[in-house]
Structure formats: C-alpha cells, structure tokens
Amino acid sequence: MKNILITAYAVNPYKGSEDGTGWNISRELAKQNQVHVITRKNNQAEIDRYLAEQNDEVANSMHFYYYDLPKGIMNLKHKLGERGYVLYYYFWQLFIPFFVTKNNIKFDISHALNFHSDSHPQFLWMLNKPVFWGPIGHHPPVPKQYLKPIYGTKNWLKDRLYNTVKIAMRNLDPFFYISKWTAKGIFVINSGVNKSVRANPKKIHIVPAVANNKIVVPSTTVNSKFTVLAVGRFVYMKGFDITIKAFANFYKCLSSRDQQKVKLKLVGKGEELTKMMSIIKKEEIEHAVEIIKWVEKKEMENIYKSSSVFCFGSHEGAGMVIPEALSYGVPVVCFDNYGPGELCDDTCAIKVPYGDYHQSVVDFSKALQTLFLNSNMHQTYAKNALDFAKNKFTWSYKASRINQAYQNI
After folding, report:
1. Which stretches of 88-147 are assigned E, i.e. beta strand?
2. What pLDDT, on a 0 to 100 scale, did the predictor assign at position 18?
3. What is the C-alpha to C-alpha distance for residues 363 and 284, in angstroms, rounded to an integer?
4. Banded model confidence at residue 224, pLDDT cuts 50, 70, 90
5. pTM for this model (two decimals)
6. Sequence-distant (≥ 6) Cβ neighbours of residue 90 within 8 angstroms
7. FRET label pair with 257: which of 4, 204, 328, 394, CA 20 to 30 Å apart?
8. Bridge partners for 204 per DSSP
9. What is d(CA 48, CA 39) in angstroms, rounded to the nearest whole number?
10. CATH code at 3-209+394-408
11. Domain segments of the chain: what residues?
C-alpha cells in the first residue's frame, strides 16, 4: 500500500464530468492505497455531506485538504471570466507544493489528476517524488468544412484562436517542458493527445477521463418508437447539425407508415439552439423532433432506456455521453475521430469517416437506416454496447490502469 498525493481541482461525489472524475478515481485508488487529496474549498461541503451520509469504508483511506489562493485573486478570477479560470488554475497548481510542505503531508507518489487540460503544466515535480499526470487532453480543431459554412466565420476564428492559444501554452512555457520531462507517467484521454504534448511515448497511457457508475440492463419491453437520441450542449463543437440533417435524410427515405415509427430526441441547451431549430424547420421535420431542456439525472435515465440509437456528430476530444449511452445498451453512430470515435468500437457503433460534409450527412443517415431496418443487427450492437461499457468504462478499470502504472516505476 502506497501513500498517494492527488491534486484535483474539481472533486464532487454527486456530480459528473471533471468533478466526478476527481472523486471516482481518487476513491478507486483508495481501495489499494492511502490517498491524500488536495482540492478547492468550494468542494468541501459536498464531500463532507457524502462522508456524513454514506457508510463508505473506502473513505477511511481518503484524506482531504482544502486550498484556495487569496481572496483578491479569487475576485480577479471572476472578473476575467474564462481567462480568469485559466490563470487561477495555473497559479493554484504552482503554489500547491508550498501548501504540501507547510502541512507536512507525507506521500510516496504524487498525481496531478485534473483539470484535464494538456496545455497547463503541473508543478508537483518540485516535491522531489515520482509524479504522474492526467488524464489530460484537449478538443482538436473542428474540421473547417464542418464549421465555417454552418456556424460562420466568427465561430471558425474562435475555434482556431482557442487552439492557437493552447499550442502557444504548450510550446512557450518552460514549466510545461519540465512537467512532461519529470512525469513518470502521463495519462491521456485519446491516442491523438501526444501529437500535441510530444512527450516520450513510453510514458503515455491512454485512459479516457470518462466512466459509468452503473450498467443498466435494458428493458425487454419493445419500444413503440425507434428513437434517435443526441445529448449535449448546443454548441458548434457538438455537431448537432449533422445529427439533425442525417435524421431528416433518414426520415424522408422512409415510407409514410415507417415515418410514424421514428423520432429524433435532442436533450440539452446552448447558444446554438436557435440555429438547431431553424435547421429542423428548414428540413420540415418539426413533427418528428422533440427538444428537451436539461433534465434531472433520474429522468435522463428514462430517456436513455427508451432510446434506440445514440447519434452524435461531435468533434470534441472526449464525450461523456458516449459511455453513458453504451451503459444503457444503446448503439452509437458517430464520427471515426479521436473523441467519440475512440470511446466505442465497431461491435457497438457505426463510425463515419471525416470527408465531405454532405457525404457525412448521407453516411450518418445510412447508419440510422441500417439499424432501423436490421433488427438482429440492432440487438447485437445493443448487447455489445453493454459488454463494452462493462469492460472499458468502469472506474475500477481505470484505477487498475493507473495503479499498474504506479507499480511499474
């Protein structure tokens, strides 16, 4: 048993995304180690609530420390908006070694767990103990043909500026070089990350920063509708335009009788909602589409259970919703990219290659048509989705990969 020092900017036992990763990986590692977690003070209330409410024996091996930068810097962070969060996290990491020394925290291995950004350095190397880093990653640039003609020049420039800043941070900050040189192991969210980080390939471990808390056995009740589902924020990166147009193409190829059997369900909200609604109207499929604003987790479970296919045209570098869909036995249609494309395989998903925009719409629609018309294939993909989720997307599986890396040093 080792003493592991973990820095996790976001930790919350009651949330998903980065907060859930911070909690679940730390908890799984605590099954075999003593874990010392340094996190933000704003996470303390929920952690304390969990410890008080749950009789969790694993928590006996978890020790929490709460650290924030001075209040004045916190106020500046809020004033600067998104840029403020970036700067705050940078300096939060920078001063953690001093916090560790001041509190005399004893450990064998340190691990900078999250943010998941691969453009921010970690500073745990200052403590002169073996360091691990990640899972880290980034959202790659959205291919031009899927962005500029649909969402405009402004969003295209915004996307390119975002990636240019990330490139500059990775290449101009000497601490970033020290971070990757000193790390004993670097966990990355997909196979494309190291093309940007450019670390020693022997240090790289692919460990997606997403998993499920449970696997749900699908109901044996036959759904009255073939429901195509997409979940996420309505932003250009998520590619909802591909999903809507593909469904429209699929829908219009059906007989009037079969059209009564299919439905598109979109769950989410965001700045591009108006554009999504205009595409739906232009395609004349309003009667076959349902848009649901963000819902409670329990209701989301019911939505997954009643869905037939998860259609996700996203260009992001990860995608928590893919493992979620698989965990409910919902087959996936997505791009064959570094993000969603690497979170599933060909036994449970139909993956569409990048290329011409209109051809991609056609390919997505053909995938929907295939799963609609071939019930045996759909059932096989659904079963494989559950198996894939059980094998690849549990927190215990991810912790085992991390523990193995610890052992290898």
Report:
1. 109-114, 131-136
2. 82
3. 20
4. confident
5. 0.91
6. 120, 121
7. 328
8. 186
9. 13
10. 3.40.50.2000
11. 3-209+394-408, 226-392
